Amino acid sequence: MSVRLILAGLAVVGLTACAAPAPASTSSAPYQDDPAASVKSYGAGSKECASASAVVRGASQFTTKADAGTATQDDFDTAFPGSVSTDLPAEALPAFADLKATSQAVVGLSKGEAGQQLSEFSLALSRFMNVAFKICT
């Protein structure tokens, strides 16, 4: 089930990325080409996978609002409750922090105002989904 959710989320990210302008390399967090490279696999039944899947689920729901330019602070708080990252492995935390920061950046912005931030958010979500997929395999 978790792997299906991640794959569905990747499809959403792909659609969002196609609709958004190409991301610029102004992200505050420098990344290696593959943030999942240093992440180890824990398996679909692991608590780490459950945590990564919860992040993907929340971020995917947030994507819909962000893409429409209707994301609020309440939407952000629902997508990223304090406990959501508790069981993420340490090597996944940089990608999670980037996802969370880029999500916060689109809160309160209209669709027209959020162009660059949506691109960075989509890129961060895609990177985290790669991390989550690796955790869950």
Strand-helix topology:
Elements: H1 2-19, H2 47-68, H3 73-79, H4 93-106, H5 115-135
The ordered string of helix (H) and strand (E) elements is HHHHH
Largest sheet: none
Which structural class do you get from the secondary structure elements?
mainly alpha
Shape: globular
**Computed Rg:** 14 Å
Termini gap: 12 Å
Tally of individual helices: 5
Contiguous low-pLDDT stretches (5 residues minimum) are 10-31
Detailed description of the structure:
- The protein has one domain (about 1-15, about 40-135).
- It has helices at about 1-20, 45-70, 75-80, 95-105, 115-135.
- The model is unreliable at about 10-30 (pLDDT under 50).
- It contains five helices and no strands.
- It is globular and about 40 Å long.
- The chain starts with a helix and ends with a helix.
- Helices cover about 60% and strands about 0% of the residues.
- By secondary structure, the protein is mainly α.
Descriptive tags:
single chain; about 140 residues; mainly alpha; about 60% helix; globular
Brief summary of the model shown:
The protein is mainly alpha-helical and 137 residues long.
